[in-house]
Write a structure and sequence with these properties.
Blueprint lengths: L3 H22 L11 H33 L11 H15 L5 H23 L1 H5 L9 H27 L2 H11 L9 H17 L1 H7 L3 H6 L4 H23 L5 H13 L3 H25 L8 H20 L1
Helix pairs in contact: 1-2, 1-13, 2-8, 2-11, 2-12, 2-13, 3-4, 3-6, 3-11, 4-6, 4-11, 8-11, 12-13, 13-14
Length: 323
Amino acid sequence: MTRAKPALLLMLTAALAVMLLSALCGGTGCFIPSSKPEIFWLLRLPRALSAFAVGGLLALAGALMQLLLRNPLADPYVLGVSGGAATGAMLFSWLAPLSLAAYAMQLGALAGALLATALLFGLARRALMGLTPALSASPSGVRLILTGVMISAGFGALMTLLLSLSPESQLRGMVFWLMGDLDNGALLVPASLVLAATTLWGCFNAAQLNVLAHGDTTAQLLGIAVPRLRAAALLVASLATASAVAMAGAIGFVGLVVPHALRLLFGNDQRLLLPASVLAGGTALALADLLARSVAAPVQLPVGVITALVGVPVFLALLARSR
C-alpha cells in the first residue's frame, strides 16, 4: 500500500488535470484566446475549479461518514445531511437581506447540516451503538439507512414548502440551484479554503481513523479518545457538506459512489483513501459538469441530473450487493 499510494495519487492528479483542461474547452462557448478571453477567465475557469472543490468536499464527507458509520451506503445525500444543508441555506437566504444572501446561505447550510446530523444520531442512536464491521448486512444497518431516508424526505418536504412560498421571480433560480448549479463563483474561495482545511485534517488524523475503523474498543485500548475523534470527524464531514451545498446546491451520489469505489479497488487505508477521494471526487464532478454542458448544448443541464442518472443505478447495485 505504501508503494501504491504515490502512484495512485499521481495518476488521479493527472486525470484531474486532463479533466479540468477538457472542462475549460468543452461545452458551449469554447474558449478562443484571440476573440473571447473573458469566457475563459470569468466563466470556464471558475466553473471548473468550483466543480473540483464541490466534488472533493462531497467525496471527503462521504468517505468520513462511511468510516464512522461503518456502512458503505452512507453518504451526505442518503443520510439527509445534504438535504438539511440545502433546506437551511434556502431558509436563511430567503429571510436575509439581499446584500447578505451569500453569507446567510453559508451559515444556513452549516446549521442545516449539523441539525440533520444531530437528528440522525438522535433517532438512530441504538443502531449506532450496535455498529459492527458487517453493519450493512445487519438490521441495525437497515434501520440506520431508513432513518436517513426519512430525514431526507422530511427536509425535502420543507424545501417544497419554501419553494411554494417563494416569489415567482426567485422560483426558477432556486429550483435550478437545488438540482446542482456551479455558477456561484463568489463562494469559490471559501469553499476552497474549507476543502484544504478538511483534507489536511483528514490526512493528519488518518492513522487514528484507521484504528477507529477496527472498532471503538480497539481504538480505546490503543489510547485514542474515541468520542472526541468521532465528534471531530462528524463536524468535518458536516462542514464539508455544508460548504458544497451552499456553493452548488444538493448534488447527490458523488459522496456515495466515489469513496466506495476507491475502497473496493484500493482498500480501506485512510492515508490513501481520503486524499484519493478528494481528487477522484473533483474529477468525477468536473466530468459530470462537462456532460451537463455538452449533451444538450446550447441548453445547459443541471449537473445534479447527470450525477443522479449515473448514481442511481450504482446505488441500486450496491444495495443488491449488500444483501
